[in-house]
Automatic annotation (TrEMBL), chain B:
Pfam family of the protein (one): Complex1_30kDa
PANTHER family per UniProt: FORMATE HYDROGENLYASE SUBUNIT 5-RELATED, HYDROGENASE-4 COMPONENT G
Superkingdom classification of source: Bacteria
Domain NADH:ubiquinone oxidoreductase 30kDa subunit, first and last residues per copy: 59-178
Organism: Dethiosulfovibrio marinus
InterPro entries hit by this protein: ComplexI_49kDa-like, NADH_quin_OxRdtase_su_C/D-like, NADH_UbQ_OxRdtase_30kDa_su
Protein name: NADH-quinone oxidoreductase subunit C
């Protein structure tokens, strides 16, 4: 009988939006993952520390650069926290514009994620289709703000860019475009038997685990938890527009809590966002777009504010929470805490990894939607003999794709 | 006995209004609650109150009891611990959500503040109740030097392995990072 050996295998660093390329240390027995330990912290940038040297308006620019995909969500969560601490009311038109940009951001983030998930399992045609579709919403963001990544739309007490009739038309065009075109992408992906076989029952997070480990957004909804900040604690335009959390049991009648369910939730959320956007555009009220357009006056108001504020919004990956402390007679922010959704979702990773195959690891890492731009290599170490070998990202992807090919062959046979 | 934090999805949640909950907690904790503030928010075009946030400050020794009390109504969804160095003590703000998966407009944000004195930098860990607190408690530990009693894994989470463990980045006293650790790029 051959002896069973457990290998320790680190995957990472994986860049996760806010501040930490995460390393996943996997305990491997053959191809099976027995346990996992997560170690973030490879490039902590200390944005919270940097904020102490800046006034609230300057911190907006820091907040926007916390993440390259949900840049607007972080800026909104931060300004909401400041508005809470300083008791500033936001005009209704500005609230609607904020919700509009949040939905645009959700569409682009979810389409990007679905495309990358297809790429990971080797379904490249769907990946390219997804990337092509995503360009439309990027064009709308550019038409509104002139930028594709950091839109610089929000400020404390309102927004900086108004929705002109021309922008309104591009948004309506986009809604029309996605209603016609998006189905070709998601039907190709979710109805494909190989995709289904590859994503079903992989990286399972049960409903109870999702609650206990405080998973958020599509990660928790994929596990069947009916939770969405836009629904349970509505803010801005969502107070007027009903948003129902998208959970797999409403669409397929069952909850698996696997990567497939997380895929499904994101796809249906894109369609939901289109409906929300349409209602926002229809109900966009007239009026001012900011509480105080002059930055100097705004800073004077903020300088008088004292207290702790809290902002929590539904970002594409889950609720994004910011807390901020302001001190009277002090221009700079006293303290600031950012809690990006991945911060919470990463706690559930070890549970998802357990008893899965190594070839599924990239898929599981992907399924909570971190930004893996920095995931470059992993080191394979044999603890008994002390040898180490480096496996590149390409090798890991190859492994993942080979499993898809094998699945496809098995299904044909 | 039923696990106080049993979060089984079908368990009945005891939905109370924010004011009822504030009154209940005040009744249970009495003088241990030193600050209670219920903030109402009105957003959207209806002009009605659309969400609430309950802020409280509780004595350090009652933190676990407080979380257990919240757990009688619903599993408290944990967001994050934030905080600040305020001279002789460190204020930690624990941000929770109650009734997160109940109904539209019902969720209640609850923030509870604990003052941890500098001469006894310890606080009970919530890990036994809510395993999702792990990263946040480890972060507070490395950034403020507050020890969480009962937290099984106390390894660094965000700081590099070769970090000087005597330096706490978010402190404002002699243990704060010195000039040598701060690089001004502007």
């Amino acid at each position: 009988m051959s002896e069973t050996k457990t290998y320790k295998l680190p995957i990472g660093p994986v860049h996760v939006g806010l501040k930490e390329p995460i390393t996943a240390w996997l305990d491997i027995e053959g191809e099976h993952i027995k346990d996992a330990v997560i170690r973030p912290g490879a490039i902590h940038r200390g944005v919270e520390f940097m904020a102490r040297e800046r006034n609230p308006i300057q911190v907006i620019y820091l907040a926007e650069r916390v993440c390259g995909i949900c840049s607007f969500s972080h800026a909104i969560a931060f300004v909401k926290a400041v508005e809470d601490a300083a008791q500033i009311e936001v005009p209704i038109r500005a609230q609607y514009i904020r919700s509009m940009v949040l939905e645009l951001e959700r569409i682009h983030s979810h389409i990007l994620w679905s495309g990358v998930a297809c790429y990971t399992i080797g379904f490249d045609s769907a990946f390219h289709l997804g990337m092509m579709l995503r360009e439309k919403v990027m064009d709308v963001l550019e038409a509104l703000s002139g930028n594709r990544v950091n839109y610089a739309v929000t400020t404390v007490g309102g927004v900086r860019w108004d929705v002109t009739p021309a922008v309104e038309r591009t948004v309506m065009d986009m809604i029309h475009y996605y209603r016609n075109e998006f189905a070709s992408f998601y039907e190709a992906a979710i109805n494909d038997p190989v995709v289904r076989a590859r994503l079903r029952d992989v990286g399972v997070l049960t409903t109870e685990q999702a609650i206990k480990y405080c998973a958020l957004g599509p990660t928790s909804r994929g596990s069947g938890v009916r939770a969405d900040v836009r629904w349970s604690a509505p803010y801005d335009a969502y107070c007027d527009i009903h948003v129902e959390p998208v959970v797999p049991q409403d669409y397929t009648g069952e909850v698996h809590g696997d990567v497939y369910d997380r895929f499904l939730v994101r796809v249906y959320e894109v369609l939901q966002s289109l409906d929300i956007l349409e209602k926002i555009m229809e109900g966009l009220p007239e009026g001012p777009i900011t509480f105080e357009p002059k930055v100097n006056k705004l800073l004077t108001v903020l300088k008088k504010a004292e207290g702790v504020g809290y902002g929590c919004i539904e970002a594409p990956r889950g609720d994004d929470t910011h807390a901020v402390g302001l001190k009277a007679q002090q221009e700079n922010v006293q303290w600031w805490k950012v809690r990006a959704p991945t911060y919470s979702n990463a706690v559930s990773w070890p549970l998802m990894f357990k008893d899965n195959e190594l070839a599924d690891a990239p898929l599981i890492i992907n399924s909570i939607d971190p930004c893996i731009s920095c995931m470059e290599r992993m080191v394979l170490s044999d603890t008994s003999s002390g040898t180490k070998s480096v496996v590149t990202k390409a090798d890991l992807l190859k492994l993942c794709r080979e499993k898809t090919d094998k699945t496809r062959r098995l299904m044909r046979a | 006995m039923l696990d106080p934090m049993d979060c089984f999805i079908d368990r009945e949640k005891v939905v109370k209004t924010p004011q009822e909950l504030a009154d209940h907690l005040q009744g249970v904790f009495g003088d241990d609650l030193s600050y209670v503030d219920l903030r109402d928010f009105s957003e959207g075009s209806s002009g009605e109150v659309t969400s609430h946030h309950l802020w409280m400050t509780i004595g350090k020794s009652r933190l676990l009891d407080f979380v257990d009390e919240l757990g009688k109504f619903d599993f408290p969804n944990f967001h994050v611990v934030s905080g600040d160095d305020e001279g002789d003590h460190i204020s930690l703000y624990y941000h929770f959500d109650l009734y997160r998966a109940v109904e539209r407009g019902v969720s209640l944000h609850v923030t509870v503040c604990v003052h941890v004195p500098k001469d006894d930098l310890t606080v009970d860990s919530l890990f036994s109740r809510i395993p999702g607190v792990e990263y946040s408690e480890r972060e507070i530990q490395e950034m403020f030097g507050v020890d969480h009693i009962g937290l099984p894994n106390k390894a660094l989470v965000f700081l590099p392995d070769d970090w000087n463990r005597e330096v706490f980045p978010w402190r404002r006293d002699e243990t704060a990072p010195g000039e040598d650790l701060v690089e001004d790029l502007s």
